[in-house]
Amino acid sequence: MTDADLLALAARLARSAADAILTVRAAGFDVERKGDMSPVTAADRLAEGIILEGLRAATPDIPVVAEEECSAGIETRVGGRFWSVDPLDGTREFAAGRDEFTVNVGLVVDGRPYLGAVAIPVTGEMFTGIVGMGAWKEDAGGHRPIAARRVPAEGLTVMASRHYSDDPRLDAFLEGRKVAKVFKLGSAVKFCRLAEGVADLYPRFGRTMEWDTVAPEAVLRAAGGRCTLFDGETLLEYGKPGWENPPFLCQGRA
């Protein structure tokens, strides 16, 4: 399959999973707790099943690392290429009745995000990208290319995590910077807003896992943005033991 074929596959499965999530939401659901006390619902499991079945049928040679399988103790050995799947990024938002949750399907190549699809079920938005080739957004207005922006004269629009909104590190990090607005929300939506050029900065201090970030980082990088450690230079590595990310900083166009 070509890169374009792989991206189309990721987007199609993310869209199917998004539709399934909305069906579960409309019908009602219970919230359970995993071993690490993070929430999980029938929507997480249904969406992951749809994505895993589609990826393994179409690309049996590419391993898949998926959140709920990992939570269940299933270990996947990866190589130079592997899929990374978060079937419902922002389960806490979903369980609380908020709209800030996504479906993330991304491909890692040689330890870096290479392509990804991020669906926002409630708004119907789909963000896709291939690093080095471009990024796109699809919604009711059609399918079009997107690009990260340079910081405007009025200052930074900052995306911050809702669940770490009281973290004193955020205020300390922003001190001395010209900030126009700060939005606090959940999930990979924050990456997407940088990628489409409506926000400029997303510092992440709290815990994330690789499946949270592969697809949205691929979209952001494809759109001309950056995701690094807080030194502003070191890139995130993927395929790490345990799959946990260090704190990181996402920025728009340099």
Give an overview in words.
The longest helix is centred in the first third of the chain and has 25 residues. The chain is globular and about 50 Å long. The protein contains 7 helices and 16 strands. Helix 1 packs antiparallel against helix 2 and helix 6 runs parallel beside helix 7. The protein is of the alpha+beta class and 254 residues long.
Keywords summarizing the entry:
seven-stranded mixed β-sheet, 7 helices, alpha+beta, three-stranded antiparallel β-sheet, single chain, 254 residues
Topology:
Blueprint: H1 3-27, E1 32-33, E2 39-40, H2 42-58, E3 64-66, H3 67-71, E4 81-89, H4 91-95, E5 102-109, E6 112-120, E7 125-130, E8 134-139, E9 142-146, E10 156-161, H5 168-174, E11 179-185, H6 189-195, E12 201-204, E13 208-209, H7 210-222, E14 226-228, E15 244-245, E16 248-251
Parallel strand pairs: 3-4, 10-11
Antiparallel strand pairs: 1-2, 4-5, 5-6, 6-7, 7-8, 8-9, 12-16, 13-15, 14-16
